[in-house]
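Hi R.,

Here's the input for the LLP complex you asked about:
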Amino acid sequence: MDYFNYKDNELYAEDIKVRDLVEQYGSPLYVYSKATLERHLRAFEDALVSKDHLVCYAVKANCSLAILNIIAEFGCGFDVVSKGELMRVIAAGGDPQKVIYSGVGKRPDEIEFALSYNIKCLNIESESELYAVSKIAAKLGIKAPVALRVNPNVDAKTHPSISTGLKKNKFGIPFEDASRLYQVIKNDPHLEATGIDCHIGSQMTSGGPIIEATDKLIALYHELEAMGIKVDHIDIGGGLGVTYNDETPPSPYEYLAAVLQRLKDIDVAVYCEPGRAMVANAGILLTKVLYLKSNPERNFCIVDASMSDLIRPALYNSWMNIVPAVKRPATDALPESDKNGNRVYDVVGPICESDDFLGKERNLNVREGDVLAVRGAGAYGSSMSSNYNGRPLCAEILVDGSRSYVIRERQKEEDMWENERIITDLEKQFS
Ligand code: LLP
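And here is the predicted structure with LLP in place:
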């Protein structure tokens, strides 16, 4: 459930017409609903209330400072995958001691930075990384809190590009190696095993795979106990899916209740790392229709947002819902429309790539100048955007009831090359 709803055929973000937002702030435009975000935060917190827990929002899904700030004020922790993300969390007012750090290729300077901020836990993804962390912790004269991110070889039953828990994926430590490496940690004065971690994939639409993975983590937990190693948390990662089209994922409550049921007799805290489920449906991307054009095979609806603003359709062939800001009546239809007033359009952007589309074969009743909204764009939208084709990053707005706030200014063209240099004649002479 979200707070982007129609009233009298007009789409609202909470109490504001989205059309007015485009009028005020321009297009394309990311718009977030604070009430929706808070609703999702509450859903995760409430689901876990019966057990010691830490909800670590996966920053990669949407790293806007304003969004991170709301999440920090709510009391949640964060899952980061780079020094940049950790610095963002700190800049947004997040508590480093509620941060866990995942990622398959952490640089030594990133590890040192994270340890110097005394973060909650480093999720280790290889044997070599374990030794690197130990060396850096020794240099700092500390004991680094670590969890092994194990690869349980469980099929998340999702799109292959976002499946991470299989042997063929680059992520995690082979399950078979885990107990040996926990022994290495036990013997190392600069490492402390505080948890067991996994993340098997994203956009999971059923609870089965996470239960299968949790069972494997529990088996490992008991193995470690027998070795005299007592970890304080089990981290089930992120991955809960959302409804883009007709998917019916479990609610956070249903998803987590099943995990808690498995963990009920085990004295550990449960950590999770949700990204998409927290923010996807808390955001939309608004875009204006520039041109309509047709050929004998296709109708194209050319909009001013592109794969540089939202790459999910181009990259994963993801289906994202595209709806009009104002629903036109069937009586106000273009020639050759169906009885509902719609024509079938490919909704495409201005970028010089055939894959630059937001949606294919969509039934729409639109005109040039209309505003469309791509729903579910709050996760992996803005955070994956780029300047490709010389396109500035678009503005972002947070709506809170009847108020709207600019949380990111539209990037200026000249800011796109502010860190670039032209080689001067003098430099050419002396090189
Ligand atoms: N934890 C780790 C270690 C992760 O790698 C991820 C996502 C998450 C948590 C959060 O997963 P979520 O709850 O958001 O499913 N760009 C893709 C999604 C990539 C996910 C990468 N890892 C997309 O647009 O679908």
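One thing worth noting: The first strand starts at residue 4 and ends at 7.

Cheers,
M.
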